[in-house]
Amino acid sequence: MSRRLFFHVKKFLPLVGIILFFFTIYMLDIDKIIDAFLSINPIYLLISLPLTLPRLLIRNTAWQIIQREQNIHIPFWTSLKIFLIGYFYGSITPAYIGQLMRIPYMNEETDEPYGKLFINSFLETTLHTLSLYGMIFFGALLVLSSFPQLIYLIIIWFAILTVIIAFFIEKKRGEKAFHFLIRYFTPSQLRVYLTRFVGTFYHDFPKFRRLALPTFVGMFTWIIIFTQEYILVIALDLDIPYIYFLLLFPVANAAGFLPITFAGLGTREFTAVIIFSTLFNIPGEKIFVVSLLGFIITDIATGLIGFFVALLDARTKGVSLKGRKPFFKEGQT
């Protein structure tokens, strides 16, 4: 009974964000939302969109640092191509889980084991997210008097993440934990393949102190993202100081990581409306437009580039987008 319930919950969970998205629209005035969209001068979009290029180059540079730490050798432009393809899949899946589609493409280039490549992709996304949490921490300090509970939530979340990372970063301890999970929480027919998969997690695992640089570099990509979206704030003539937007909008972005929607749609807009309408008395319709249009500029547009890159790559290699090698390849360790 519980398994059947979990199956149905998992099936419909991504729809929660979509429902929240339409609830936010219902809560606001749809005519004012349309007016806000139409009031934006296209010149601001033309200023915002080109900032995508340096953002992609910087993030790929951070990823290349992690690759080198794991003795994974992929040329810069090939790495950027793989990143864009993963970005496309991430932009259409809950919690951006589709970014793991990088792994089969990386395997084609390096023939490294899937477990090692999984850890590489996981480290890149985790460190990139940690840099966002760092910005959220400073944002929470700015609004300590209005949202005192926010700083406590962030401290607790940081503490949980630190404990988890500290536990799994040690090879012997981590392997024991993974084998325990495989033995007692996975179907028996998959255990052999999962054991092989996990068996390469710690191949060329980087030293923790060597990951500080890509985490720091990743913060610059977030600054560019929120600057792209702040240009929309300027376009709508909203009275929000840049530093406040830079450190508070990440809270809305982080809400989009919850696996209850596709690429954060709904949760991000709802959270942004609550924060900025409360703190700055900004009309909810306008901050809704900033969030949604910012998502289109920073995520959808980049995802579209990744889509065309994936199509071109598939056409060049003569395979379909789904025709990659499976993660659990017989005999691979």
Order of helices and strands: HHHHHHHHHHHHHHH
Q: Radius of gyration, Cα only, in angstroms? A: 21 Å
* Biggest sheet character: none
Oligomeric category:
single chain
Intertermini distance: 36 Å
Which helices and strands appear, and what pairs or packs with what?
Elements: H1 2-12, H2 15-27, H3 30-39, H4 42-48, H5 52-69, H6 76-90, H7 102-110, H8 114-142, H9 148-168, H10 171-185, H11 191-198, H12 212-235, H13 242-255, H14 267-280, H15 284-317
Can you tag this structure with a few keywords?
globular, mainly alpha, 333 residues, disordered C terminus
Q: In brief, what are we looking at here?
A:
The chain has one domain (36-68, 75-169, 205-317). The protein has 15 helices and no strands.
Describe this entry's structure for a reader.
With 333 residues, this protein is mostly helical. It has one domain (36-68, 75-169, 205-317). Helices cover 73% and strands 0% of the residues. The chain is built from 15 helices and no strands. It has helices at residues 2-12, 15-27, 30-39, 42-48, 52-69, 76-90, 102-110, 114-142, 148-168, 171-185, 191-198, 212-235, 242-255, 267-280, 284-317. Helix 2 (15-27) packs parallel to helix 14, helix 4 runs antiparallel to helix 12 (212-235) and helix 12 (212-235) packs across helix 13 (242-255). The longest helix has 34 residues, at 284-317. Residues 5-10 and 327-333 have low confidence and may be disordered.
